[in-house]
Amino acid sequence: MIRGEYNADPAALCYEAYETADKRDVEFLICDTAGRLHTKSNLMGELGKIKRSLSKHDPNAPHEILLVVDATTGSNVRAQAKQFHEAIGLTGLIVTKLDGSGKGGVVVAIQDELGIPTRFVGTGEKLEDFKEFDGRDLIANMI
Prior knowledge:
Layout: H1 10-23, H2 41-55, E1 66-70, H3 76-88, E2 92-96, H4 106-114, E3 118-122, E4 130-132, H5 135-142
Parallel strand pairs: 1-2, 2-3
Antiparallel strand pairs: 3-4
Helix pairs in contact: 1-2, 3-4
């Protein structure tokens, strides 16, 4: 784990993390930018900067850009996904809290309208509650 100083530049931290992972032959690097709102243009701009900094090491990086959304948020998830997709080009969604009151039907609209597939879902707090997305399971649980 690579940590930066408080208020450090996220793009510089991700750049350094990539260099460290590469030197240590680490196969996967996850850069978590938690807590970003699609309505905050400065934070969305930072995401673009992170993407550009990683592409200096590898023109194809980042290889996956996943947005984690809360199923209980409802249709606002679509607006979030659209803004993030326009800013940085999402490759997939992770949908959490599918065990709550939200049924996650908005993932169908996001796939249809924006072409962003749901990759993983969370239905609880344990590791075994996190799994690859299966559309058949989603539909069966919506009925």
